[in-house]
Design goal:
The chain has 1 helix and 5 strands, in the order βββαββ. It is an alpha/beta fold. It has one domain.
Length: 86
């Protein structure tokens, strides 16, 4: 996987990110874990989450991305989390 610096933050992010809109909606938590595991194994470390994306518990607010990796795997960072205007 190739990585790029994210602005002046010093963070290095993968040139490929994973959008998480389907997690908790069309995809259940188990399938979300599988997708995230494959992404992590491929070197992806940028996940697009949002407080308006579905949650496994229903509704929005808590993106499943940090909970989705299998036990013993740290959550992937950084996360791009756009906010909806109010």
């Amino acid at each position: 996987m190739e990585y790029r610096r994210l602005g002046r933050s010093g963070l290095k992010v993968s040139i490929v990110g994973l959008g998480c809109n389907d997690f908790g909606g069309r995809w259940d938590l188990e399938h979300s874990r599988e997708v995230i595991t494959h992404a992590l194994d491929a070197g992806v470390n940028l996940f697009d989450t949002s407080d308006v994306y579905p949650s496994p518990a229903g509704g929005g607010g808590d993106p499943p991305t940090p909970r989705a990796p299998p036990a013993g795997r740290p959550p992937a960072t950084p996360r791009a989390t756009p906010k909806q205007p109010k």
